[in-house]
Prior knowledge:
The complex is a heterodimer.
Chain A: E1 3-5, E2 10-14, E3 19-21, E4 24-26, E5 33-39, E6 46-52, E7 60-61, E8 64-69, E9 74-79, E10 88-96, E11 99-102, E12 106-111
Parallel strand pairs in A: 2-12
Antiparallel strand pairs in A: 1-4, 3-9, 5-6, 5-10, 7-8, 8-9, 10-11, 10-12
Chain B: E1 5-7, E2 10-13, E3 19-24, E4 31-37, E5 44-50, E6 53-56, E7 65-68, E8 75-79, E9 88-95, E10 103-104, E11 108-112
Parallel strand pairs in B: 2-11
Antiparallel strand pairs in B: 1-3, 3-8, 4-5, 4-9, 5-6, 7-8, 9-10, 9-11
Amino acid sequence: AQKITQTQPGMFVQEKEAVTLDCTYDTSDPSYGLFWYKQPSSGEMIFLIYQGSYDQQNATEGRYSLNFQKARKSANLVISASQLGDSAMYFCAAYQGGKLIFGQGTELSVKP
Amino acid sequence: EAGVAQSPRYKIIEKRQSVAFWCNPISGHATLYWYQQILGQGPKLLIQFQNNGVVDDSQLPKDRFSAERLKGVDSTLKIQPAKLEDSAVYLCASSVKTQETQYFGPGTRLLVL
């Protein structure tokens, strides 16, 4: 069964610096996709970025990029030039049996 | 394009009372999901609809929770009677079809006293 692991409960980063949030997954499916969501304190889950297992290149969306290492089953989110508004919970997720399975999340705090 | 709408945003009730949440998905999205998110955890799927049919309700506590999507557009999730452990954020999401990117609404924060 799909399992999503986020080993960093909390992270701090200085404003304007880059930060990497870790995510590992465990699936036997030959084809799969990985998602990252941001959840600010307001509660809404905001879709950030998607990586397909057969995509040739790492996904990028503005300041967000995915460091996808298929052999290691990791899909780490990289946020460049951190902003105060990036402070939030970040969840990695993937489909398993039609259900979107989420990791436990990482709380990111951006310091001025 | 309008996002997923949910109401109410906040609700406080006493245990054994009933409560209902409403969700209107993004226009044209066939698949609708209800999640429960306990504080400090990732969301957990309660029920998934494809148009007006239930695809997966295996994790829905059917003795107290019910949901419907009668016309294949908006949906209602009901809890009756509520328990203390139902205190959580209830998130609604939609996608064009199954196994595609899900877009979430703002959620309803429920507190059961």
